[in-house]
Structure formats: structure tokens, C-alpha cells
Design a protein that fits this description.
alpha/beta; TIM Barrel; eight-stranded parallel barrel; two-stranded antiparallel sheet; 8 helices
């Protein structure tokens, strides 16, 4: 698919109703709500995810980030949290993406692909026909304690671009994005959406000044 001129921006690791409101006020199209993970920042309880999601306008994406690998468990979690999108951060081990979509009509399903090398292109191509979007991140599922996101690291954007050119669904780019490098990421990858966490925070808290700088950098790069 052709790259979007002005990518949508998803602010991840939202920790409160106030952070959700701030992100939306600054221009976020989607919010990431992180449930239990083996590692990484921003984890909040399912109860708080449900509370935050209930306050968000319907036009804004509310992404439930889940490390669960059984479709039945993910279905139960989403029905409790009531987000409009599920972000699967690991591989499914029981059930299929189709099972998930059949059980939750109207809920978008996004599969994370952690970019490790050229093999990630084939991984994304295999899953793309079965989901609504792919999100590329810089985790590592092979570690003893898995990294499923929130690393603050960039990955090889040449591989990301190859994936974007291979698939026919929206692609979100995550991993170490900042106001300083987002223009390069947009030019090099051409993503539908951008996803960031640590790049707009100070001591783990969402920072209005950093948010505004990031959105200004996105607008500036879009105008080129």
C-alpha cells in the first residue's frame, strides 16, 4: 500500500485517564494500554485499562496490548477491558486470528512483528492476510525473559520498508521513535502509523512539551 503522507500517531504506555486526555489533546489517533507483560514499561491492571478505555471518544483507537497467546484468553481479556483494538505482542499458540475476529466482531486485530532480520518480512507476509494491521517493534521473543515492546530501541528500517512494500494492510512503526528521528523514519519506511512510548516521557510520565515537539516534527516531515 502507498505510505500515508501524515501518519497516525499512537501514544503507548498510557497510565491514567489524564494521560489519555493529554495524548488526545496533542493529536494522538490511538492510545496503547499495556496489560501484563514479562518485561517493559507501562504495565497497568486490566481494571484500569477498562476504566481508561471507557473515557476515550470512539474515534480514537484504544489498543489493548496483550502478551497472552491463547485466543480464548485474549477474548476474555478484551471483553473485560472493552477496548476497540487488540494488539497481540507475541505469537498465538492456541487458536487463530480468524477465531479471534469471529468471536469479537467490530474489534480490530493488530499483530506485532518484532523485526529481527530479513526473516521478519516473511513472518509479516504470512500473518498480514488475517489481521487488520501489522505493528513493527524491536522486541525479542527468544530471550529467557521476553521483550515484547517498550524497549526504546530502533531496528533496521530497511527491513521495515521491505515489509511495508510487501503487505497490503496498514503498518505501524514502533521502536525508539523521537522528535529527532521521526522524519527519517517516515521517509525511510512510509508507515501508516507511528507508535511511541519512552520518546515522549520524563521519568515514565507523559510530558506535554515532548508530545508537542513530536507532533510538530511529524507535521514538519509531512510537509516536505
Amino acid at each position: 500500500m502507498k505510505p500515508t503522507l501524515t501518519p497516525r500517531v499512537k501514544i503507548c504506555c498510557i497510565g491514567s485517564i489524564d494521560e489519555a486526555a493529554l495524548a488526545i489533546q496533542c493529536g494522538a489517533s490511538a492510545l496503547g494500554l499495556v496489560s501484563n507483560m514479562p518485561s517493559g514499561p507501562g504495565v497497568i491492571s486490566d481494571a484500569l485499562i477498562a476504566e481508561i478505555a471507557a473515557t476515550v471518544p470512539p474515534a480514537i483507537g484504544t489498543f489493548l496490548l496483550t502478551s497472552r497467546q491463547r485466543v480464548a484468553d485474549i477474548i476474555r481479556q478484551q471483553r473485560f477491558c472493552r477496548t476497540n483494538t487488540i494488539q497481540i505482542c507475541d505469537h498465538l499458540t492456541s487458536g487463530t486470528h480468524r477465531d479471534l475476529k469471529d468471536a469479537l466482531p467490530g474489534i480490530s486485530v493488530v499483530q506485532v512483528v518484532h523485526v529481527a532480520g530479513p526473516e521478519s518480512v516473511e513472518e509479516a507476509a504470512r500473518v498480514a492476510p488475517h489481521v487488520d494491521a501489522i505493528l513493527l517493534d524491536s522486541g525479542n521473543q527468544k530471550l529467557t525473559v521476553k521483550e515484547l515492546g517498550g524497549t526504546g530501541r530502533t531496528h533496521d528500517w530497511d527491513v521495515s520498508r521491505a515489509i511495508r512494500e510487501r503487505i497490503d494492510i496498514p503498518l505501524f512503526l514502533a521502536g525508539g521513535l523521537t522528535p529527532e528521528n521521526v522524519g527519517e523514519a517516515m521517509e525511510g519506511v512510509g508507515p501508516y502509523g507511528l507508535d511511541l512510548c519512552s520518546g515522549v516521557r520524563i521519568d515514565g510520565k507523559l510530558d506535554a512539551t515532548k508530545l508537542k515537539r513530536f507532533f510538530a516534527a511529524v507535521r514538519s516531515a509531512s510537509a516536505l
